[in-house]
């Protein structure tokens, strides 16, 4: 039986009513730590690696791809000049396959997924790839404005917010203060993120989604095949010893923040009928989308209205959702979101999140969707929700349903 549609549709026998966008497959690299195993991989080549893995796993003829939409945040240096198009060419795809790179800050590749799926549903594409990459080792945060000239905020914007500086670390502190989240709560949540990531790795839960990366070492080429950032035996006592990073009397530390990371991920999206005719067995279908804006100074609270909006559009409640991936940019983001929504943390980031696994900015949206889709298949759950905070006070939310 075909699952019921729960996104808003027009009346009548329209093209939009007839088309469903599905996830055929999703793959990611293991996530590397800053200056870690992926430090020598150019981001173009790293993203190309995931594109090649996707075609190999699915038997996809790259010539069939109508568009490749990628996310990347620091679009300068090695990630400049449309890194997605460069990766498509590096992967050996035909020159006729177009590509574009989008920037919605940390949600860039989740937005890429929205654009690809919505294009399929609208009839603009039959087959598309959404992906993302970030090498934070090779292209550090802040690189686009590090050498000027100027800054990205004009006088009128700064005047609107009384000259405030938009800083995610301070925003994370503001989130904890507003929702009265203690340092101990943040550290305990972060400890659990490491424990869940370690358990998932030990049990092989990530195996189906990983594209191992060959890495040159002094002892020869080795296969990088597991996430590098999580601690197998995390210690709450050691976490408690760390000093706050952004405020001397604050609660946000390196231990309860996401890690600086390198990685890439890619998702193959197709119209359901097209997928079935090609013999692909879809993992999930896209059920609803939402984007939301919020205070850019507080910055990190928009997953709350994004979640409210997508639930209203779908007619579901959080009790109907089997699995949720909420990006752990900071532990305070997830705990504030949980307090505002009443979500069950037993369903949230069940295999750990960015605090333990890492947050390669432009790749994280596609990484979360890859993890979510594979975990829905593994567990037999029905609905999965993904949302993530984004610079500028925004958030994307995506609802998928296993098929």
What is this entry, summarized?
This protein is of the alpha+beta class. 34% of the residues lie in helices and 20% in strands. It has a domain at 15-140 and 259-402: Thiolase/Chalcone synthase (Peroxisomal Thiolase, Chain A, domain 1, 3-Layer(aba) Sandwich), CATH 3.40.47.10.
What does this structure look like?
Helices cover 34% and strands 20% of the residues. It contains 13 helices and twelve strands. The chain is an alpha+beta fold and 403 residues long. The chain is globular. The N and C termini lie close together (10 Å). The chain has a domain at 15-140 and 259-402: Peroxisomal Thiolase, Chain A, domain 1, CATH 3.40.47.
Order of helices and strands: HEEHEHEHEHHHHEEHEHEHEHHEE
Shape: globular
What does the main sheet amount to?
10 strands, mixed
N-end to C-end Cα span: 10 Å
Q: What is the share of helical residues?
A: 25-40%
CA radius of gyration: 20 Å
Low-pLDDT ranges: 7-16
CATH class of the domain at 15-140 and 259-402: Alpha Beta
Average pLDDT, to the nearest integer? 95
- Proportion of residues in extended strands: 15-25%
| Overall CATH architecture of the domain at 15-140 and 259-402 | 3-Layer(aba) Sandwich
Give the helix/strand layout:
Elements: H1 15-18, E1 21-28, E2 32-33, H2 43-58, E3 67-71, H3 83-90, E4 99-102, H4 108-122, E5 127-135, H5 143-146, H6 155-160, H7 168-178, H8 183-202, E6 213-217, E7 220-224, H9 236-241, E8 261-271, H10 272-277, E9 284-293, H11 303-314, E10 323-326, H12 331-341, H13 361-379, E11 383-390, E12 394-402
Parallel strand pairs: 3-4, 3-5, 10-11
Antiparallel strand pairs: 1-8, 1-9, 2-8, 5-8, 6-7, 9-12, 11-12
């Amino acid at each position: 039986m075909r699952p019921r549609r729960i996104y808003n549709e027009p009346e009548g026998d329209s093209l939009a009513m007839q088309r469903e966008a599905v996830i055929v497959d999703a793959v990611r690299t293991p996530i590397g730590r800053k200056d870690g195993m992926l430090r020598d991989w150019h981001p173009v080549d790293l993203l190309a690696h995931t594109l090649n893995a996707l075609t190999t796993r699915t038997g996809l003829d790259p010539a069939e791809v109508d568009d490749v939409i990628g996310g990347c945040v620091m679009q300068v240096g090695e990630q400049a000049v449309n890194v997605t198009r460069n990766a498509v060419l590096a992967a050996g795809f035909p020159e006729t396959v177009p590509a574009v790179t989008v920037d919605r800050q940390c949600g860039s590749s989740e937005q890429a997924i929205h654009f690809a799926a919505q294009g399929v549903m609208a009839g603009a594409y039959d087959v598309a790839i959404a992906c993302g990459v970030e090498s934070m080792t090779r292209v550090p945060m802040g690189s686009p404005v590090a050498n000027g000239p100027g800054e990205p905020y004009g006088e009128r914007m700064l005047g609107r917010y009384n000259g405030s500086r938009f800083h995610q670390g301070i925003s994370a502190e503001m989130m904890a203060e507003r929702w009265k989240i203690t340092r101990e709560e943040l550290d305990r949540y972060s400890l659990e993120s490491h424990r869940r990531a370690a358990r998932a790795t030990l049990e092989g839960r990530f195996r189906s989604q990983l594209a191992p990366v060959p890495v040159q070492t002094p002892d020869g080429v080795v296969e990088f095949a597991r996430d590098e950032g999580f601690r197998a035996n995390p210690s709450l006592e050691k976490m408690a010893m760390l000093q706050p990073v952004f405020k001397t009397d604050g609660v946000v530390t390196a231990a309860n923040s996401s890690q600086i990371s390198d990685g890439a991920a890619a998702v193959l999206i197709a119209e359901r009928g097209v997928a079935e005719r090609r013999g692909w067995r879809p993992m999930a279908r896209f059920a609803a989308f939402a984007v939301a804006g919020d205070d850019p100074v507080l910055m990190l609270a928009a997953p709350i209205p994004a979640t409210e909006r997508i639930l209203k559009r779908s007619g579901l409640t959080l009790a109907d959702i089997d699995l949720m991936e909420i990006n752990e940019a900071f532990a305070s983001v997830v705990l504030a979101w949980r307090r505002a929504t009443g979500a069950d943390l037993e369903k949230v980031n069940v295999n750990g999140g960015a605090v333990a696994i890492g947050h390669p900015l432009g790749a994280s949206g596609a990484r979360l969707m890859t993890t979510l889709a594979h975990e829905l298949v593994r567990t037999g759950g029905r609905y999965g929700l993904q949302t993530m905070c984004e610079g500028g006070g925004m958030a994307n939310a995506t609802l998928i349903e296993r098929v």
